[in-house]
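Review form for a predicted model. The reviewer records the input and the model, then writes brief findings.
Reviewer: anonymous (R2)
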Amino acid sequence: MKIRTEILLAAVLLVLVNFMLVIVFSDKGLVDFYQRGQMVERQRADNRRLEMQNLALHRKVRRLHEDPVYLEAVARKELGLVRPDEVVLTLKEAPGRTDGQQPAHR
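Model under review:
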């Protein structure tokens, strides 16, 4: 009787350990659940960042439509546009300089 009880107890323990391993390490187990939770948090942070970026772009578009001074500044800076009555001067770099800095005057 004692051996039979020990075998039964060992079998039950083996089944419980097996269930625990399946629950923890299976495709839908606790490890996967934890990893998916981390993935959801990363996605939420990315969504918040994109929402802020989207809001900034909406504000920029509205300002481009409503503010002619801002529109002109953006056109000048990003597109290099000038007015018809303006003169564009192109300066050459000093000979031998490749870093874009002018030599110091003495």
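Findings: The chain has a mean pLDDT of 87.
Further findings: Residues 2-79 form one domain.
Recommendation: see findings above.
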